[in-house]
Amino acid sequence: MTIDPITLAVLAGRLEQIADEMDATLFRSAFNPIIAEAHDASHGIYHATTGETMVQGKSGLPIFVGVMAVAARAVIDKAARDGDLVEGDVYVFNDAHIGGTHLSDMRLVRPYFHDGEVFCHLASVGHWHDVGGAVPGNYNPRATEVFQEAFVLPPVKLVRAGVLQTDIVDIVMRNTRLPTSAKGDLAAQMNALDLGVKRMDALLAEYGADTVRAALDALGDRAEALARAEIAALPDGRWEAEDYLDNDGIDDVPLPIRVALEIRGDRLTLDFTGTAGPAKGPVNISKGTAIACVYVAIKHVFPALPANAGVMRPIDVVVPEPSLLAAQFPAPTGGYTETILRMIDVIFSAAAQAAPERVVANAYGTINALSIAGTRGDGRRWVMFSFYGGGHGGSPESDGLNHGNAPISTATIPPVEILEAAYPIAFRQWALRPDSAGAGAHRGGLGAVYEIELLEESADAFLFGERGRFAPKGVAGGGDAALNAFAFQQGETMETPALASKALGIRLARGERVRLETPGGGGWGDPSKREPAAVARDVALGYQSAAAADAAYGTAWRAAPGEAGR
């Protein structure tokens, strides 16, 4: 059936609101701060037979748009094999090779029934604090297989015909260091899906299944048409870019990620041929994750595009197999965030050659997954896991954002007050990092400095980061940003890890500190085009030293009016 534009707009808003409400329900009721405060989670509505993304909430992580479609497809295939799908079933799993991302992301998929048939799938994904493995928090930079990263759960029925399978819950809770947190997060995700069912019931009762189904189909077609129009507005041609991961955590050898971006009319091809082969360490990603990452990058270049699988219909993604971007079980995938960030960087670098007016420079390019874990004096285990911010790239319109979140997500950095209240640590510094931004007509944003002191008797620290050896790049003539830097105290000295951005099992005593200095963003445009007054302002604010400003921009800024020009 056809659907009129007004009804389509109303239903599009209602469907998105359902996903938004599921997001809000989880954020408000989850136990661990990575979900509750950082919003490392997502909810969406997925196609009944293909699993394709139809709607995603605005607060969910963009990388989950495509990845959760892979998860929904896995459940569809599982249900088809078993032949026992009934209303009220809910599946749970974290297998990254089947559902994408990494094992910390626990996925729940609930087939939504209407009149005895599956109408669509509702899905929830959230980053749990700990799911077993060798390293608390699950970012193990030395893992060579998934079993060293976390407990692996394939798709299984958590709920059968509305009845919770307590044996499945028992198995999952036995494989986490923080069962109270995990049980709270699981209940919160189930509640979010329950709310989704209620809202879908009300929507179909009001408009009818045929009308809602027609709206979902129309949204996909319109997403495709919009993507084709955006691509067609760019010049035809082929552009290439490459960048590197520092290492894989095992072998201290750089890993190239290469892309060729080609536009022909209203079709776009991204070919990653030439990217490194499978890695020994945990920087591999699944092919589904790689394709989802392409969507995130394209969304940045074309911000008007919706969260809908129709966007990808005119886009061809070539991923070499085997490769770093097409992991096969049981290859480790725990550090997937670092690899997809580098994928986005190379796509930006290639796209900037075609249309610099649409592209920002590279952001800081690492989440710096830092875990500190130990035992309190009363015997309770604690695991502080968090990710940390840095500078975003300069854009055609403005300087980059200082101390932002990774461009793969809308997740926020947990507030210092929350972290200090929850764990026996104290932040002795949480500040912008001077001289960390790439120079440009529009400079990059500044990175940050975090210094954390242990307040308990002892603990172990682990870091999984990147950009310790290959700086975030500028585009359109902009300069590179500062490198990532990590140091940890051992007695009276501060030491650095041999692998630059990765470290395992650092033993800390009470009063000892770890220090993380994150990269800024790359610059956009020729630094000689930057207004002297803007340089003077940066120096006055302490964003840049006078010496660094002279080196990047010359001395004209010293004559600019104002305090910094004196």
Model description:
This protein is of the alpha+beta class and about 575 residues long. The chain has 12 helices and 20 strands. A hairpin with a 5-residue loop joins strand 12 (about 370-375) and strand 13 (about 380-385). Helix 1 packs across helix 7 (about 210-230) and helix 8 (about 285-300) packs across helix 9 (about 335-355). The longest helix is centred in the middle third of the chain and has 29 residues, at about 180-205. It is globular. The model has no long low-confidence stretch (mean pLDDT about 95).
**How many individual helices?**
12
Strand order of the largest sheet: 2-1-5-4-3-6-7
Roughly how many Å apart are the termini?
Answer: 71 Å
Largest sheet descriptor: 7 strands, antiparallel
Mean pLDDT: 95
Low-confidence stretches: none
Rg (C-alpha, Å)? 24 Å
- The helicity comes to 25-40%
Q: How would you describe the shape?
A: globular
